[in-house]
Specification:
The chain is of the alpha+beta class. It is 28% helix and 30% strand. The protein is built from 3 helices and 6 strands, in the order αβββββαβα.
Length: 118
């Protein structure tokens, strides 16, 4: 396996990208780190997003109820959670030379300088 190989998976919202990532990581016999993003739903409605690391740590990235200076659409952002949980998981995986999983590189994540650097 080429350690510098990058694979980008794209698709429309709800097309199964995160599900595919989880299944591939489960099937691989390689050490991996990083995070994926999950919707937060209440009453059948999407109200936010959370970061979940491959080791199970979680942090809310964005929520409709957040009163935050940084916003994307109806969601207030908590970039500190992305940085302390998601970016930390990516940095650990890079340092250990493990497979690095970053499920989402979108308008919320790129607002974080630490995320872009990692």
């Amino acid at each position: 396996m080429n350690l510098n190989q990058k694979i980008l998976l794209t698709g429309r919202p709800g097309s199964g990208k995160t599900t595919l990532i989880k299944r591939v990581v489960d099937k691989l016999s390689l050490p991996a780190g990083g995070f994926y993003t999950e919707e937060i739903r209440e009453g059948g409605q999407r109200v936010g997003f959370k970061i979940v690391t491959l080791t199970g740590e979680e942090s809310v990235l964005a929520h409709a109820d957040f009163e935050a200076e940084k916003r994307v659409g109806k969601y207030g952002l908590d970039l500190s959670g992305l940085e302390s949980v998601g970016v930390a998981a990516v940095r650990r995986a890079v340092a250990a030379r493990h497979l690095v999983i970053i499920d989402e590189i979108g308008p919320m994540e790129i607002r974080s300088h630490s995320f872009r650097g990692a």
